[in-house]
Amino acid sequence: MRSAKTNAFQAAVLISGVMYIIIGAAFIFSPLTIFQFFAENVSENWIDLVRDHELVAPMYFTVRAFGVLLLTSGFLMIMPLFDPLKYRGIAYLNGVLFPFISAVILLKNGLFIGVKRDDSIHGNYMHLPIVIFGIILSVVFLIVLLTLLLTRKDAKEGRE
After folding, report:
1. CA 107 from chain center: how many Å?
2. What region does 131 belong to: left with phi over 0, alpha with psi -120 to 50, or beta?
3. Quick one: 139 exposed, middle or buried, by C-beta within 10 A (0-12, 13-18, 19+)?
4. In this structure, what DSSP letter does residue 109 have?
5. Among 2, 25, 87, 136, fewest CB within 10 Å belongs to which?
6. CA neighbor of 88 nearest in space, from 2, 6, 4, 27
7. What is the mean pLDDT of residues 98-115?
8. What is the per-residue pLDDT for 123?
9. Cα Rg, the chain, nearest whole Å
10. pLDDT-derived band of residue 116, with 50, 70 and 90 as boundaries?
11. Inter-residue contact 80 to 91 (CB < 8 Å)
C-alpha cells in the first residue's frame, strides 16, 4: 500500500507526462497550427517557406524534433508510477531540471524581449506562445519538485 505522499508524487509525474505527450504530439503533427492560434499574420505560402527558407525550414523541423523529445519524455514520466523509488532520477531530470531551465529561457525571452510589431508601434511585446509554454513548464517544475521534496524522507527510508 502506497502512502498519500507517494500518490501525490505519482499524480504529479502523471500530470507532467500527459502535458508532455499532448504538447509533443501537437508540435510533431503541426507546429504551425499551434502558433497560428497566437499569431496575427501568417503567410499564405508558409509551406513554401518551410521547404526552402534558410531560417524557417530548420526552425520548423527543429520544433517537430523537439515535439518527439517531449512525446517520448511524456511516456518516460509514466515509469515512476510503477516504481516510485527506482525512478526518482527520471522525475528529477525530466520533471525538475528540464522544465526549470526551459521555463527560465522561455519566460525571459517571451516576456522581456523588445520587438517592433510595425512602423508605428515601438517597445516591448510579449510573445504569447512562448510565455504560455514557459508557464506550463513552470507548473510542471513546481508540482514535481514539491512532491519530490514531500516524499524525500520516505524515499531515503525505502518506503513508498
Report:
1. 12
2. alpha
3. middle
4. H
5. 2
6. 6
7. 83
8. 53
9. 19
10. very low
11. yes
Residue 30 pLDDT: 80
Placement of cell 517597445 in the chain: 123
Distance of CA 106 to the CA centre of its chain: 10
- Calpha distance 36→47 (Å, rounded): 13
Q: How many residues does the chain have?
A: 160
76 neighbors 94 (Cβ within 8 angstroms): yes
Question: pLDDT band for position 70 (50/70/90)?
Answer: very high
d(CA 126, CA 107): 10
Place of cell 512562448: 130
Distance between CA 139 and CA 54 in Å, rounded?
A: 35
Residue position matching grid coordinates 508540435: 27
Cell numbers given for 135: 508557464
User: Regarding predicted confidence, which is higher, 148 or 49?
Assistant: 148
Q: In this structure, what C-alpha cell is assigned to residue 9?
A: 508524487
Q: What is the C-alpha to C-alpha distance for residues 130 and 76, in angstroms, rounded to an integer?
A: 24
- Total H helices, total E strands in the chain: 9, 0
